[in-house]
Task: inverse folding
């Protein structure tokens, strides 16, 4: 099985078994699929992230007001909901049908009817046209970089003139040698991942959540090709996974 197919299969399983935790790996979010404080905190984090994003965009482009938004890797709708409260049209895309089903329930519960939720390989997605804002956060790190770079080029090409891209990537993994050895063994040696799951108290068949680094030079080249001449980089560090949210605008 290819790396990209293996990653897609893993997310389909995670979307069925533990979708909220798979989106944000905080143990509290194992319980976010039901009413209560963890669920409230989960969706508050989405509101906070979108507020922060719009503030960052406004600092560079104060007149920018998107009408159509694409959220790539939308999961259960953590960010789709706040986007849909700020823009007339939102399209959420994910590889997991179970995640999309949960996102539909969350949109209906929130009374939001301006959202289309589509699978990454859906023919309808190709007919959706272009967008004013193309966004993805903490998603590409779980996609093998070769496949991810192809997707980046497609997303950048779908920006309207004057549109803004906001895409997050991990560019370096600063973890211990021990972590790297265990991670390699879990990926490459049959049975090791199952044993590691059991040792951590997880179901034995729970798939590995892959972490992939992206070459910044290739990312910048893809963004440069759309005509952008300025990129803002917001650096992130999630427990040694060093990343950057790249924000750029396609010329009018």
Result:
């Amino acid at each position: 099985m290819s790396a990209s197919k293996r990653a897609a299969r893993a997310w389909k399983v995670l979307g069925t078994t533990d979708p909220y935790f798979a989106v944000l790996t905080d143990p509290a979010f194992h319980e976010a699929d039901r009413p209560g404080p963890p669920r409230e905190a989960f969706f508050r984090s989405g509101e906070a992230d979108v507020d922060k994003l719009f503030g960052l965009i406004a600092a560079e482009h104060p007149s920018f007001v998107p009408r159509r938004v694409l959220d790539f890797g939308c999961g259960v709708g953590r960010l789709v909901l706040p986007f849909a409260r700020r823009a007339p049209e939102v399209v959420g895309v994910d590889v997991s049908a179970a995640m999309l089903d949960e996102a539909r329930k969350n949109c209906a519960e929130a009374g939001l009817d301006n959202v289309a939720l589509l699978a990454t390989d859906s023919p309808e997605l190709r007919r959706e046209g272009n967008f004013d804002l193309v966004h993805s956060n903490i998603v590409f790190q779980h996609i093998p970089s070769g496949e991810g770079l192809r997707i980046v080029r497609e997303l950048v090409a779908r920006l309207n003139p004057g549109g803004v891209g906001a895409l997050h990537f991990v560019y370096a993994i600063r973890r211990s040698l021990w972590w790297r050895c265990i991670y390699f063994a879990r990926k490459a040696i049959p049975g090791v991942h199952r044993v590691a799951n059991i040792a951590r108290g997880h179901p034995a068949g729970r798939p590995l959540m892959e972490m992939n680094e992206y070459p910044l030079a290739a990312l910048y080249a893809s963004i440069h090709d759309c005509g952008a001449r300025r990129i803002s980089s917001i650096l992130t560090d999630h427990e040694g996974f060093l990343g950057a949210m790249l924000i750029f605008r396609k010329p009018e």
Remarks:
- The chain has a mean pLDDT of 92.
- The two ends are 43 Å apart (CA to CA).
